Amino acid sequence: MPDSLLLLALVCLPFLGALAAGLLPTRARDAASGIAGTVALACLGLVWAAYPTVSSGGVLRAEFAWMPTLGLNLTLRLDGFAWLFAGLISGIGALVVLYARYYMSSDDPVPRFFAFLLAFMGAMTGVVVSGNLVQLVFFWELTSLFSFLLIGYWHHTAAARDGARMALTVTGAGGLALFGGVLLIGHIVGSYDLDAVLSAGDRIREHPLYLPALILIVLGALTKSAQFPFHFWLPHAMAAPTPVSAYLHSATLVKAGVFLLARLWPVMAGTDAWAWTVGLAGLTTLLLGAYIAIFQNDLKGLLAYSTISHLGLITLLLGLKSELALVAAIFHIINHAAFKCSLFMAAGIIDHETGTRDIRRLSGLNQSMPFTARLAMVAAAAMAGVPLLNGFLSKEMFFAEALTAEAPLSPLLNILPLAAMLASAFSVAYSLRFIHGAFFGPVATDLPRTPHEPASWMRLPVEILVLTCIVVGLLPAATVGPYLAIAVHGVLGDDVPYYSLAVWHGFNLPLVMSLIALAGGVMLYALLQQRLRGDVEGPPLIRRLDAQRIFEQVMVFLSWRLARRLETLLGTRRLQPQLRLIVGIGLLAGAGAVWLRGFGPGNLPSTPVDPVLALVWMVGAAFALGTAWQAKFHRLAAVMLLGGVGLVVCITFVWFSAPDLALTQLTVEVVTTVLLVLGLRWLPKRFQVAGDRGPEVLTRTRRARDLAIAVGAGCGLAALSYAVMTRVPPELLASHFLERAYTEGGGTNVVNVILVDFRGFDTLGEIFVVAAVALTTYALLRRFRPAADSVEIPEQQRDQDGATQHDDAVRPTADWLLVPFTLTRLLFPVMLVVAVFLMLRGHDLPGGGFSAGMVVAIAILLQYIIGGAAWTEAHLRLRPQIWLGAGLLIASGTGIVAWFFGRPFLTTYFAYAELPLIGKVPTASALIFDIGVFALVVGATLLMLVALAHQSVRGHRAAPRRVGSRAGEA
Amino acid sequence: MTHAADVPLWAAVPVAFLLLIGAGLALAGSIGLVTLRSFYDRMHAPTLGTTLGIGSILVASMLYFSILQTRFVLHEILIAAFMVVTTPVTLMLLARAALYRDEREGNPDAPPRRPTPVQD
C-alpha cells in the first residue's frame, strides 16, 4: 500500500466511522460498537503495515497541497515516535471499544458515544501523524473539542456539564497558547513543516523569541497533560463514562502534552529555561498529584490524581537534560498507558457491578469478584512499582536519572532523589489503598447492587492489558524493546544513548531507593488508616489550596464581573450615548488628522460669493437650525423643516449645474419625508408640560456638552468639505472619466456612465445592499409591535371613520377628497411616462434608473396617500418582492452575459439602434443594467414604505371594538 | 443671461414686464402668508404666486426663449398644466387637516361646518 494512502486512511477512517456511527439509530448499540471496533482494528492493522518501513528507521510521508503559498499543506508524517503513539491510540482504542460495548447501558444513546469516541481517535491520530505544526494545533483543538463532548456525554448531570466545560476551557486556552507558540516557531524557522523545524534546533534555541515560544508551547502541553497548576480539570473530567476515562484520561488525550514536549525535545530542550519550566512543573505535579491521590475517596478520583502524578513524572523526565531521561519518559508513557488503562477499567467494572466508587463503602470485593481483584492487584502493583512488573522498570530508570541528571541549580539536584523516593512512596500508598480498600476487609453489605464478576468479554481488555504489564515486566528487552527503540530513534535520530532494559541491574542505589519507597509506602498507608477511614474530605495541609476554586473565581471574574463592568463602562442600550460616542470619535479622528498635518488653504482660487446663493444658503441654515430646535416636541415641524433643508441642497445642485444630483436629491427627499412622517405616527407622544420647572442642572450640562459636540462635529465636517473642495489633486480621476465617457462608455452623461459602466460593479454591490436593507426592514416591521401609548388610532382618523361608518366603507376618502383624488389619478400615468423618459435618456442626459425608480415609487406613494392603502391595493397589484428580485436578476444577468462573449463580468456594449418612428437611438447594454437598477429601486422603496404604511392598517384592525363603540355612542 | 443683450427691445419690454408682474404677485402672496390672520385666510395668499404669478413668469420664459432661439419654445405649458393640477391637491389637503383640527379643538374661529345631509 502506498504511504500516502496508508496515512490518509489512518487519519480519515476514524472520522468516517464516526460519521457512520453518528447516523445510526439511537438504540443501535451493537452496530455502533461493531463499527467502532472494526475501525480501531483496521487502524491497528494500518499501523502494523507501517512497521517494516518504520523499523528500518524510515519515515512515511504524504503531502497534499492546500495553501502552498502560505506554507500550509496537509502533511502526514509517521516516524517511529508517531508510530508508537498511533499504535497506542488504535490498540487501546480497540480494547476500550470492546469494554465500552459492555459498560454502556442500552438506555444510553450509544451510537453518539461511539461516534465521539471514533472522532476523538481520528483527531488524536491526526495530532501524532501531523507533519505540519499548524495542522498539529488544528487536530490538538479537535481533541479538546471531542474530549469536551465525551466528558459531557451524560449531559443530564451537572457534574458532567461542569467537568466538560472546565476541561474545554483549560485545554482550549492552552491550545490557543500553543497556537501562538507554533506561530512563533514558524516565524523563527520560516516554515511550519515538522522536518524543517526539527532540523533547526540551534536556530530556535538562540533566537530572541525562543523564550516566549517556549512558554507558550509549554503552556499548551501542561494544560493538556493536566500538569500543575492546570491539573484540576482532570479529576472533574471523571464525570465521563469510565471507558472515556480509560481511553482519554489515562492513555491518549493527556499524553498529547507529553507527546508534544517529547516531539519538540530535540529542538527546544537542553536550555535552563526548558529545565526550569518543564522540570519544575513536572516535579511539583509528581509530588502534589501523588499526595492528593492518597486522600481521594472516589476510585476514579484516586486514579485521576495518580494519572496527574505519573504525567508529572514523565514531564519531569522530559525536563531533565539527558537523552536517557527521554528514553525513560517514552518507556513510562507505554507502561503507564497499560496499567492505568486497566485500572480505570477495573474501577469501571467495580462501579458497574456494585453501583458505587466510594472506597469507604466498598470492601471485601475479593470474595465476590476474585478474578477482577487479581487483575486489579497486578495492575496496581505495576503502578506502585513492584519488581517484575513494567512500572518497576521505568521507575528504576527514573531513579537512576534522578541521581545523575544535570539540573540548573545544585539544590534541585540534591532534592531530586528524595522527591523521587517520596513520590514513589506516595504511589505505593495510594495503590495499596485502591486494592485494600476495594477488595479486602469484611464483605460490604450496604452496596447499591450485589457484586458479581462482570461479563467475560468486559474483562478481556483488562486481561490483555494486565498480561502486557507482566510480560513487559518479565521480559522487557524481548517484548517492548524493539518498539521502544523505534520510538526513541524517531525522536533522537541516530544519537540514541545506550540503555539497558534488563530486570536485574545488580544491587545498586536505584534498587535500594525502590525498596525504601515500597517499605515507606506501606508504612505510610498503615499510619494513615485512622484518618482515611474518617469522613474528612480532601488531603491534609493543602486542603485550602483548591485550584478548582481559584479557577472558578477567575471564571466568574472573567465571564461575569469583568464582562459586566466592561458592559456598563463601554456599552449602552440608549441611542444618545451611542451617537455621542460615534460622533465624538469621528470628531477626534478629524481633529487628530488636522493636528498632525495642519490645515492649510487649498490650491484653487476662491470664487466671489454670489448674494443669491448666499441668501438661499442662509434660508437653508435657518431650516437646519429650526429642525434641531423643533426636534424635541414638534417632530412633524422638524420633518417639514428638514424637507426645506433638502430643497435648499437641491437648489444648490441646480445652481452648480449638477442636474443629476438635483434630481436624485429631490426624489430622495420626497420619499424620505414620507417615510419619516409614516414613522412619526408610531413614536411615543411627548408634551411640553406648562408648569415644568425646566431641566435640572445635570441635564443642562449634558445638553451643553452635546451641543458643543454637535457644533464641533458640524463645523469640522464643514471645514473638511471646504478643504476638499478648495483643492484639486494633480491627477484628477474625474478628468479621466470625462475623457472616456463617450468613447468607452457610449454615453454623454458622465455621472450615469460612471454609475452603470465604469463603476458598475460598485453599483451592483450597492443595489444588493439596498435589497438586503429593504428585506430586513420588511422582516422587522412584520413583527413590529407599537408602544402602548401609540396603539390608539389618531383622533382625525377616528373621526373620519366614525363619520363614514354608515357610508360605503370601500371608498371613504374618495368621497371626502374627490377633487385631489381625481387629480392624482390623472397624474399617475404622466408620472410613469416621466419615469420612462428619465430612464431612457439617462445614459446621455440627466436621469437614469435610480431617479426613474424613485419617480415611480413617488407616483405610487401619491395614490396611497390620497386613495388610502385599501383602495390602492384593490386597484393596483404591487409586487415589491418581484420588482426587487427582477431588478437584481436583470442587473447581474447583464453582467453575466458579457461572459458569453468572452469578456470580463459587466463589460458593456453599445451601438446605435434603428427604431421605427423614432429613428436612430443610441443604445448600450448599460441601459439594461440601468433597468435592473430601476426595478430594484422601485421594489425596495415600495417594500419599505408599504410595510410602514400597513402598520396603520394593522393598528386600525387591531382596535375595531373601540371604534365601533364610539360610533355606537354617536 | 449671457444672450440677454441680443433680445430686441420690443420683446425685452414685455418679457421684463411679465417677469416683474410674476415676481410681484409672488411677493404679495408671500407677504399675505405672513400677515393674514387666520389659517384659512393665509391659505389663499400663496395661490397668487402659484397661479397668475408663475403663469406670467412662464409666459415671459416662453417669449424670451422663443425669440432667442427663433423657434417656438412651448414646454412651459406643461409646467403650467402641472402647477394647475397639483396646487389644488396641496391646498385641499391642508384645508382639510386644518378643519379637522379646529373641530377637535373647538376653535371658535373655524368656519361653521355645514350639516352633512345623509344621502342614501
From TrEMBL, chain A:
Membrane-spanning segments: 30-51, 82-101, 113-131, 137-154, 166-189, 209-234, 246-267, 273-295, 302-320, 326-350, 371-392, 412-432, 464-487, 507-528, 579-600, 612-629, 636-656, 662-683, 704-725, 763-781, 816-838, 850-870, 882-901, 921-948
Protein's UniProt keywords contain Aminoacyl-tRNA synthetase: no
InterPro entries recorded: CPA3_Na-H_Antiporter_A, MnhB, MrpA_C/MbhD, MrpA_C/MbhE, ND/Mrp_TM, Proton_antipo_N
GO molecular function: antiporter activity
Origin superkingdom: Bacteria
GO term, biological process aspect, one: monoatomic ion transport
UniProt topology in membrane: Multi-pass membrane protein
Keyword Transmembrane recorded: yes
Any Pfam family matching the protein: Proton_antipo_M
UniProt domain Na+/H+ antiporter MnhB subunit-related protein: residue ranges: 822-942
Domain MrpA C-terminal/MbhD: 621-685
Protein localization: Cell membrane; Membrane
All copies of domain MrpA C-terminal/MbhE, residue ranges: 702-798
GO cellular component, one term: plasma membrane
Coiled coil: none
Keywords of the record: Antiport, Cell membrane, Ion transport, Membrane, Transmembrane, Transmembrane helix, Transport
NADH:quinone oxidoreductase/Mrp antiporter transmembrane domain location: 130-407
Domain called NADH-Ubiquinone oxidoreductase (complex I) chain 5 N-terminal: residue spans: 66-114
UniProt-listed NCBIfam families: PRK12648.1 (NF009288)
Protein name, per record: Monovalent cation/H+ antiporter subunit A
UniProtKB/TrEMBL annotation, chain B:
The species this protein was found in: Neoroseomonas marina
Spans through the membrane: 12-36, 48-67, 73-95
GO terms for MF: sodium:proton antiporter activity
Record's protein name: Cation:proton antiporter
Keywords noted in UniProt: Membrane, Transmembrane, Transmembrane helix
Coiled coil feature spans: none
Organism domain of life: Bacteria
